[in-house]
Description:
By secondary structure, the chain is mainly beta.
Amino acid sequence: MRASFWMRRFTRRTTQRGMQRVAATLRITQTWRKISIHLETDNSESDSTGATVLTEDGRWPSLNYQYENDPDPDSASSMTRHYGTADLALKTDSDETVLEGFYYTGPGRENYGEMYFVKSE
């Protein structure tokens, strides 16, 4: 059995001038033994290196994952391979299924931002 869904993302990424909006696609694929997260923007792609789905009564289910990001060769020189973590809560917003939360990167990039994904069919 294999489950997969795509989400469109609009996230705010921090820069020295504040937050900037970045459009991306998040693909989550799950089998009985594995969950994989792939994120793609115009400038780079990320793949999960580990993921956990957490559930607890009275709280939103959440998806926590670690990733490795590979920027496109034509990206700005400030875009280097890096690792990071994302923490997203699964919610219903109006009639939409939403994953929202934050991410942060490790040493070298020291970047963080908010993430907001809307499920698409």
